[in-house]
Every structure is written in C-alpha cells, then in structure tokens.
Write a structure and sequence with these properties.
homotetramer, alpha/beta, 13 helices, ATP binding (chains A, B, C, D), urea cycle (chains A, B, C, D), ATP-binding (chains A, B, C, D), Argininosuccinate synthase (chains A, B, C, D), Rossmann-like_a/b/a_fold (chains A, B, C, D)
C-alpha cells in the first residue's frame, strides 16, 4: 500500500493467540494502523491480558464489547425456536456467534472510521465466509483483509515453524506446550475442537479434550430434574427440582443450563461435517445448555403446535440451519425464514420436565395452557364426539389410490 | 349376515389378549368361521399357549408364521438406510411391522380362501390404518372387519366392564392384575406403551414400565465399545471390542444390538406425537438396537456421501418416514422413495466405532474405503492443490446478492 | 328426525338447479325447515329468479349475499401473491371460492340459529370436502347434511331418471335441453366443466363449451397491450395502452382483466387432475383474468425478489396451493403459509407490460422502484465494482466437491 | 508462460466470432499451441467457414464433432422427463448444452494431450461456470484459461473498441453491422438473446430479434394438430394430423417439433432471471419444440402417474432444474436426481393430442395403456364400488385437527 502520512485503518479481530498476534505485527509492517477487536461472546478468557498483548504488539487500541446478552437473545433464542441443527447433529454453536461478531466488528469499523477489517480465519474453513458475508451484507463497501488467503502472507508463513520464528523475532509468546495438538473455538454456547490429531476421523479424540462438559462416565450418579418453562418458543424460567434453584433472566438461564449440562456430560459429539467450501471435516463439539434446550423445545413444540404447521415450519428450520451454517445470517432469505419461524412460535408455551443424567437428556412430562392435546379425544375409554366409523371412511378413501394402483399392476400378493 | 350352510371365512389377527379373544368369540357368534393368525415379529410371547387359546375359543386353526428374518431384512434395513424417524423422535418400531403383518395376513387369507380379515385395533389409532391400507393395497377386494368401528360391537362393549363381563361369560381369562394400566405393542424392534395412566402427558411414566431396556441409572458403570460395519447402508458385522463377540447374520446382528442397547438403557423416549387421524397422543417407546444403528448409520452416511446428494436424500427420508407412519408402505410413492433411497446407499460402507453407555450412544471414530473425506485437503498444515485465494472469490460472489440487497435498503448498520 | 313442534333448521346452499331444488323439497319432506342460501361470487345468474324458485319450493327465506369484493380481496389476491397453481396447471378457481362460501354459510347459520347446513355436492368430488372442512373449522359443532352421501337419499335417487321423476312430481323444472351434457361451476374467477361427455379424457371438448372466453382462433387479430401495476404483490392499477382505459378498484380491475382475457381467448385449459379423494378427473377450465395476473405477477416477483427468498417462498406457494385445493383454507397451516407469503410480497411492486393475443399472454417489459436488478452490474461492457477473477475462485470452490467425487471414482471420461 | 521448445497445448472452444478469434490470436501470442474446437449442437452455422477461420488465425487444427444426437437423447430427453424449468419459465436451452460441450471438450483435450482448455465466456455469466464445473468434474487436473477473467487480458481489452482495434490489426473480420446490438447463444433446442439494448428490462425487445420462431401474430391462421406418443417419459412418435407427417427418430422428431413450434410462434419468452453468480439478468429466449414437449409431457405424466409419486418427483424436478442451471450436470447430486426421475417415468406412456396455434400449445385429449384414470370410478352417474358415505368419514377425520384448533382459539366466525 501507498506510503502516505495517513495510514489505512484496519479493525482486526484479535484473539490474543499466536496467529492473530503475528497478523497484528504483520499488518503494522505493511503500514496499516490497527484497532484490535475482540468480541466477548462468553468464552473463558483473560480479556485484560489480551488487551495488554494487543497494545504491546502495536494496536492503537483494543475494543472488547460484551455481547453475551445479545448472543443469547438475538442469536441463540432464534436457533432454539428453529430447533436448529446442521446435518442432523451440529447445533451451530460457532456459526451462530459469527454474524454477531461480524456485526459488531462493522459497527466498530464505522465508529473508528476504518475502511478495512481483518481476521485470522484460515482459507479452508467456514468462518472466513461467515465473517465476510456478514461484513459485506452490512457494509457493502468494506474491504476485508484475510491474511491466510493473501499470497504475500501465506507464502511467507508456509508452515507453523515460519510463524514460530516470526513470533520469536517479534516477542510474541509461543503456545507453552504442544499438549493440545488441535485448534478450538469457544463461546458461551459451545466449544469446538478440530485439526491436528483430530484430522484423522478414525483416531479417537483424547478423553480430556473437552472444557465445558465432563465425560459422562465421570458425571454424578444421581440425575437432576429440571422444569423448563417456555413462552413463544423461548425459555423463560428454569427450576431445578433437586435443589429448587430458579432462574429467569435469559443470560443467567442459559448459563445455568450450561452448568447443568456441563456437570452431567451433556452435548458432546464427534462428527464429520460438510463445510460450505465443499470438503468434509471432522470436529468434536460440546454444547451442553443448548442440547438440553433443543430436547425440551422439540417436546413443547410438538405438544402445542398443529401437525401440519409444524411440517411447514420444520422445512423452514432446515433452511434456516443451512443459511446459518453457511454464513447467510444477514441475508434476505434468513431474515425471511427467521420471521416465519418466529411467527410459528406464538403458542409454543408451557413447561417441560426433563431429567439430565450422564450425557442424556430425558423428557419426563409436559403441560401447556395452549396444547392441542386433548386427553378425552385420545382416550381409549372415552368415545366422546369421536365417531369411530368415520375412521373406516377415512381409510377407504385413502386406500382408493392404492387399490387403483394395485389393479393397474394386477399385483396382489 | 345370512345364515347359510357355507359360513363366511375370516382371518383374525389374534394376539391372545382379552380384546381379540372376545372378538374371536363374537365373530363366531355372528356366524363367521375364524382362522386365527399371529405374526411372530420377535415379540416375547408364549406362542403355543396362544395357539391353544385360539383353538379353545373356536378358531378353526391358528397360523403363526415366523416373520423375524423378513422383518429385519425387508423392513428394518430400509428404515436404517433412510434414517427413518417420525417427528424428530419416533423410530417407527410399530409402523414398520404393520405392513409386514398385513402382507402375511393377506397371504393367509388367500391361502385359506377367506374374503374377510379382522383385527382388534381401536378406532382412534394408527394401526387400523396401517393394517387396512396394507390389506387393500395388496388385495383390493378384501373385506375388513374392524369390530371397534362397528356400531353393533362398540355399542355392545361400551366400557371395559362390558368386555370383562363378556369374557367371564365365555371363559376368557381376564388380565390377572391391574398393575399395568396401559396398553403396549411389542416386536423385535421396539415396545411401545400408551393409554391408561400415560394418557396424562404431564404424568411421569412408571420407572418399571420398560421391557427391552434397563433404566439408564441401572445400566453398567463400564461402557461397551462396538465396531459396526456397513455395506450399502446396512450393517453387515458387529464386533464388540470389550469381549470380541462378532455377529454377521442380519437377524442375529439386530438381536445382538438389541441386547447391547437393552442392557445399557439405550433408546427410551417419552413423546407426544401426531397421529395420522389428527389427534395428539402420548407414548413411551423403547428401541434399543435401532437407536444404535440410527446413530452409527448417520455417521457413516455423512462420512461417505456427497453433501448435496445427502440433502436430496434426506428430503426423501422425511417423506419415507411419514409414508411409513401413515401406513402407506405398499403405496406407489413409498416404493419410489425406497427405491431412490436404496440407490443413495451404494457407497455407504465402512466401520463406525461407537461407545454405548448408560442410555447414550457416542460415536468415537469411523473409516471407509469410499469416503469423500480427504485429510490432506482439509488439513490446516497442508496447502496441497487447494488455492486459498479461490475462497476469496467464492465469498465475494456469494456476497454479491447480499450487497445489492443492502444497497437497495440502504441498510448498513 | 324426531317429529317435534320445533323443526330443525338447515341452511341449504341452493343454486337453483335441479339437484339442489330436489334436495330442498326432500329436506322439507324429512321435516326440516330450510333457509336457502346462495353466494354471489360473481357467477352469471338471475339471482331473483333463483330466489323465487327457492321460496316456491318451500324455503323459509332465501339469502343472497354479495361476496364479490371479499372474493377478490381476501381470496384471489392471496392466490395471486402465491402464484397459486395446483399440479402445474389449475389456478384453483373453484377451490378459492369454496371457503368464502362456507364462511358466509356458517355466518348465516349462526344468524338464523341453524344447527345444520346442507349442500348438493357429489360424494366423489373435492367440493364436499372444501365446504365441510370450512364449516367444521369455523363452527366445530355444526352438523352437515350431504344428501348425496346419505343412503336414504342416494338409494332413492340412483340415476338421473329418478331425480327427473321426483322433479316432475314436485313441479321442479327440468333442464330445458340435453345440449350441455356436462356439469359446470362458475364464479368471477373461472368456469369449470366436467363430467358427461368430458369424462372420456380422450374425447375432445366441444368447441362452444366455454362461457368466459372466446376460442383463441376467434379472438381479434390485433393484440392488446396492458400495463399492470403491483404493490405488495397485488395489482393496483391496469392501463390498457390501446385505448387508455384505466382501472384501480380491485373488483373492477379484476373484472376488467377477465374482460380482456375473455375476448382474447386467454386461460383455457384441458387437464386431468388428481382429486383429494384419490381419483383422477378430467376438467376444462377457463380463467382469463387470473391467468394474466399469474403471468404478470411471476414477472414482477422475480424482478424484485431476492433469488433465495423466492426459493423459500415458492416452496410455501406449493404448499399453499395444495392446502387450498384440498379445502384447508381455514386450517392453521394455511393461515401460516398465507402469513409468510404475504410477508414475502412487501417489495413486490412495479409495472409489467404485457401483450394479450389469441390465447397468449406475453411479457414485454417491466420496471420497479425496488428491483434488485442492477443493469450496471450485469452489463457486459461495464466492469464496475465486479471483479471477474472472483468468479474463478467461486467456480474452483464449487468444483472442489466434484473433483473429489471424480477422484474417488477414478471416473474421468 | 515459460518459453520452452515444447509449447503448452490448449483446446479452445471457438465459435468463429470476434471474441474467440481475438482470444485465439492472443493465446498464440502468449505462446500456446491452440487446437480449436466447436461443438455442433444444431446451431445454424457455416461450420466449414469457421474451420477456415480458425486455421487462418493460427489454430493447429479445428475439431467440429456432431453432437446433435447425443444432445437430444442424453440431455434434452432427461429434461423432458423432468419437466425442467428454471424459475418457472426458462427451459434451460443453453444450460443443457453446456455439459455436453464440456464433456466433448475434455475428450478432445485428452485425445490431443492438452493440459489446458480455454473458452470465451464472460466473467459475469453462467456459462463460464457450466463449462468449468463440467471440465473439472470430468478431468480434475485440467487447467482452464478464461481470458475474460484474466487481468492480463481484460485489462488490455477494456472496451469493445480495444477488441475491434486488435481484430483489425490481426486481420480478424469485424461484425458487419451494428444492427444486432445484443449477444446470442444458439443450439438445436433454443436461441437466447441478451445484453446490449436488452439490458434495460423495461425496453421492449425488437420484433425481429428471433430466429427459430415467427412472431405469433405472423403465424398461420389455421392451427396444426399433433399426436405425440410417449414411452418412458420421452417422445417416440409424432403424427401431424393435418398432413399425416410421421416422425419417430429422436433427432428428427425433435427437429420436426422445432419446425412446427417455430412456424406457429411457440416458445418465446422475455424474462429476468437470477444467475448463479447472484445478479439478475434479462433475456429473450425461444424454445419452440421443447415448449410443445413440456406441455405434452406434463399432461401424460399427470394422467399416468400416481398423485403422490408425482409430488415426490416434482420436488426432484425442481432440484434437477437448479442443478442444471448452475452447471452441476456432472455432479453426484445430479446423477442421483436423474436416476430417480428416470425411474419415475417407467409408466409414463401414451398419446397426447395437442393443438399448436399462434404461440399457444393446447392439450385436446390424451390416452394411455397405463393410466390410473378410471372413468367408471370418477363418473357422477356410476356408483360402482365407491361408497359415498366413506367420504363423510374421510372429511370428519380430516376436520378433527381443525375443530380442535378452533376450539383452542374459541375462534368461530
């Protein structure tokens, strides 16, 4: 870039780790002025130590907004309403945080007058996409620097050793040990682990890899029973029947479910998934609280929602999940699916009783002021207004097509 | 019916229980000749005692075909290939057996020259539909007697007491105790419990209700590790790494997984579901072996199948599951979805390592000769042929639509 | 029914034709008091003559509400927004009127205190279902009399001759001639013809069958050009460029398009369709105005709506169309799909220029204040902000999956 | 590229037009040896004149394979089976030819030992994607040169004038006149027109733009009537009832339908569509023969296929259409959808009578040896085995859900 008096300003998503520290120094070398930015989305970090690091390595300032409340209310709650799961298993813990982080990064960029944002995501992953689609959607003229996709960067740092060498030269501390040969991403909702020894999908993950959850085998021998209350498809109260704990604030409630799930070993998965970029990748994820919520929400939703509405809605759910996974949170289609899904949740209310035990979440009971469940109607002992002969007509009419088809084929057994 | 010399012949699906015993006697009273029929689909029964009962209460003969092998190979295996689940939770254990039972019942009817078949299913449930759609599809001119939908029957037996009285008069033994105030359906794949005390969806199911599985809390403290090998989407070998047990025969393999799942408390659910008839109903289901297979098959499928093929296939899976739930196994649409799903499974092969522990099934590792997983491609340390700058173009093009949308709305943050 | 002083009151959907006249007389014979009801949904009828007939044959009174405006605004407009078509061809002209007719019939029933409603639809068609699902949904305890499904009625009137004889005995005028050996249903949106000579799907429909449209071969030799303006997905103005006619009132606008379409032979189809009841049936339909609107709305919708939003929306459209066809307008799922579709239309605005000529509707041009069309972006002569090298990356990343698949199969040409 | 003795060999898709002629010369300048290649997919061209041009401008040789038969049988027929339409209107005429052209180009590249292929498609369109995805899928290590995406090319030729100047310098003839200010793509199935004056979506296309079809207003005043016979979803015979012409050979049959459609003005559309790249673009398309086939195939398909099978199949059709539009013909998912769709066509057989008149295609009648249409069943005069009281039960059971919903809402009118 041009060597002018006025340096180009870049907001760098800075984690405090080796990669983004090297990127910070490198950006400075390239002549940029760097504002470091780290979103607090509930990950377990020493934020002030990171701030000190950023400033030490040359950032003009370090901005660390607390986004936890927004994360729960604007991102996790819609995912709960959508029973959001990608490829049948992944609860989208990382994917849901990215648009929030991008939104705030753009806000910061506008505030500080930066025309660039930068991040340290690799060139093979989903996160680069999620960050950048969010950034472009919210600020179409923003320029993105993704060093791991810039030849001048990745050709210079072709292996980890090059990066270590650069770090050493610039006083950037190296990771203390090689005891954790994998990479991870953490937020309030989940921690994910991938790469390194995990790249071989037939290599079992180390027992001690997880941070948010205990191994189910080490969980307590006594189950905990919770009553989770929903309104409009989101949890509004949790009561622990074992010790009468009661929480209602959204952020506290979610953290409490994490705690319950965590100590009972809930929400660990080992999966291979299909990245947007087209490759398969293997990851270990732990998502304790959201796993409890997915189970409970599914139960209260089926209980209170009309069958056919739910079929339409579940199709929207699938689309929502894929949109989120692929980084399209701030797209017109994701706005639309969120809007429709939210509408479907108006009567999703009631209480679900769940047992949490050694990795499992078991539904025990449910009640609702607006269930379509009618115990008199379903009862085998009560006829009520239901006329069983109607069922005969129903079956005959449903069979009409099948009988015609059979006749055409002369295909009786 | 007319009092002719030649009695009308009916094949009655006879379970040996109170209801079908009363129906047997009642059909005789109405002037029918009754051939009793009971499909052995792996339920835990004293079949000879039932045979004796049937003959005692007036059946001309009792036919008890062993359908276990067909059940596994022709019905459970396609469900495994389809990851078949209804409304996110129910593995279709009853629904899958019904078409098989109906097919054999029609075969028996043709062999004995019966123009009627009869069953004791209630007029509010799914099973009447599944039986009868199967029957009509395979034998369009068959006549079905469903006493619980015939006014002359249900008006006579308006409560359980009427039935008890009738049983007493006809020497039909009453259920010994009232200790199990619910109804159940059992086969090799699952046992379901509903009605009675379970009708209140907020009333917790009794602890001792289940037959195939122990309560997870009473399961062993040590996990079992299995390697399940798949070919064309169905399991062909299970090796228990704990004790080196190895099974390959389909029927044995499935029973073995039931045993593993059962002793480890796998596959219990408490759900409210939407019947085809339109009402919501609450059931407790246990499906140990199939739950293990669903988990393992999902894993090997994602591992070996192209992402986009799987999206198409999963949509077919949903349709298949609903077809099965609603009794349309022998429909042209279900033939079509089965055919397509089967095609998708040609390369679904490999070994999945699973841990089974106190109700949970955990994937540990997987390998396959035909996976699309490419560890070199995904590696963060190897560039290989992958050019990271391509990802930048990919993102920019994907962002094009979003930027236009944003511009139109002048909607930057 | 019981012979009490207080007669049961029934609201009969009365068309003035042979069938419902006989039903009126027959209901009186059965002891009912009958209020006749005929919805004016724009069909071409002598309503006062029908009123006189109803009273003559014993109706206590005859109620003829004018529902034309509601039909256009509450039923046709949502169908336009949904591009509603059943099985690729049928624009749902009859299906859309039925719920409106049912809603008003229930309103009348409540006003006059009737606990019964009756209609003359056959027992094999869709309309019985549409009427009755509407009625039950809006008034769960209403009782429906459908004489063509009552054995006491259909056994008495086994052929048309029995009905003719009964009509003669009761002074009901017979259809003057047999020149139109088919049945028809008419409203403002369309006329349908079926049965009789049309039952043979290989028998060509008579040339003179249609009422709303001329045969394209007899249409004017000079096209008419219209500019149709949309707001929120519904037409708000039509200007005929040929003669400068301009209409804006919804009802007038729709009638005007019918006139244009009608004189130019637009909207005639000959199809076989699948009834909800499961059988295939052949019909001739003419739907002039709505066919023009479908063409124009599709054009402005694609022009103004984001591609991916439209994919989600089109899936909802399909579901909406099937819901309407099957009579589920007043269902929770149809409320939900209508709500979502309506949301999608917020920016569907602009003007479409169409040419109407001898059966064809041709789009000539379109403009919109909120199109996502960007002529600079798409131009082959302007580079603009678009960087063509991005497309290379986009393609490479999209190819990644395909190349892996090919490698796995070693499947080069 | 390196200046070695052994020049790199490139196969260039060469149309004979200005752009690819300049590209040919430019590639030579860059040091490549060029083999020119032009697929004969039925476009109206003087192939020998193009061959002469290619050799004159420096191609080592010119290969012009005749792919017409393959185009019809392997690409158009599957599209007919799939009723393939993109965004409700575009019959995919260009999109279907691209994978065939790419497949043959790769075959040529392998035969001549080229490690490069090149094409002249723009960097903003779909065709670059279709060519290259096809190429990479079939030959993962092929290298693609797309000059309009290479900075060294597009920076040199920034406007048409630069290209004209280069052409003049190199003896490349300029387009004779500017009378056709748009670009076009032509093959046997369709001709498309876009860019230039067409870029303004509100500017009406010139009357004389089309090549395959007459303006409907200039079409004959007398309709032509055809009987089109299908087997397994593809046409096997066409009889023109007007003049008794009969064709059965696939290629001849398709060309004959083009001729009929062409002279009657069938298959012209003016649309805005969404490119894969994300932008909206406006095009004029004419697709005479395939439009007739789409109409006729839809009719015979609904006539012969079970309703529910067709619902599943239509969903696959949509996916197929998008796959083709986006260039994924040689993808695992498109192989899968084609396979499933083909299966669905096994009984799609029979004869459809269509009238073709001034732009319109009208179905008159149809017959089939394997229709599920049962005129006795549907007849209003014949009861047959159908019991109308069954419909009452069918309706009541379908209403159950609606009545419960209404009760919950206490929402009667």
């Amino acid at each position: 870039m041009a060597d002018t008096d006025m340096k180009d300003l870049v907001v760098l998503a800075y984690s405090g780790g080796l990669d983004t520290s090297c990127i910070l120094v490198w950006l400075k070398e390239q002549g940029y002025e760097v504002v470091a930015y780290l979103a607090n989305v509930g990950q377990d970090e020493d934020f002030e130590a990171i701030r000190a690091k950023a400033l030490k390595f040359g950032a003009t300032k370090m901005i660390i907004p607390d986004l936890k409340k927004e994360f729960v209310e604007e991102f996790i709650w819609p995912a709960v309403q959508a029973n959001a799961v990608y490829e049948d298993r992944y609860l989208l813990g990382t994917a849901l945080a990215r648009p929030l982080i991008a939104r705030e990064m753009i806000k910061v960029a506008k505030e500080v007058g930066a025309s660039y944002v930068a991040h340290g995501a690799t060139g093979k992953g989903n996160d680069q996409i999620r960050f950048e689609l969010g950034a472009y959607a919210l600020h179409p003229t923003i320029k993105v620097l993704s060093p791991w996709r810039l030849p001048e960067f990745y050709n210079r740092f072709q292996g980890r050793d090059d990066l270590f060498e650069y770090a050493r030269m610039n006083g950037i501390p190296l990771p203390v040990t090689k005891s954790k040969p994998w990479s991870m991403d953490a937020n309030m909702m989940h921690v994910s682990y991938e790469s390194g020894v995990l790249e071989d999908p037939n290599h079992q993950a180390p027992d001690d890899i997880c941070q948010m959850t205990v191994n189910p085998e080490k969980a307590p021998d006594v189950p905990e029973v919770l009553v989770i209350e929903f309104e409009k498809g989101v949890p509004v109260k949790v009561i622990n029947k074992t010790d009468s704990t009661e929480v209602t604030d959204p952020l506290e409630l979610f953290l409490y479910l994490n705690q319950i799930g965590g100590r009972n070993g809930v929400g660990r998965i080992d999966i291979v998934e299909n990245r947007f970029i087209g490759m398969k990748s293997r990851g270990i994820y732990e998502t304790p609280g959201a796993t409890i919520l997915l189970t409970a929400h599914t139960d209260i939703e089926v209980f209170t929602m009309d069958r056919e509405v739910r079929k339409v809605k579940r199709s929207l759910d699938s689309q929502f999940s894929e949109q989120v996974y692929r980084g399209f949170w701030f797209s017109p289609e994701c706005e639309f699916t969120r809007f429709c899904i939210k509408k479907s949740q108006e009567s999703v209310e009631g209480k679900v009783t769940v047992k949490v035990y050694k990795g499992g979440v078991y539904i025990l009971a449910r009640e609702s002021p607006s269930s379509l469940y009618n115990d008199e109607l379903v009862s085998m002992n009560v006829q009520g207004e239901y006329n069983p002969t109607d069922a005969g007509g129903f079956i005959k009419i449903n069979a009409l097509r099948l009988r015609e088809y059979c006749r055409l084929r002369e295909n009786s057994v």
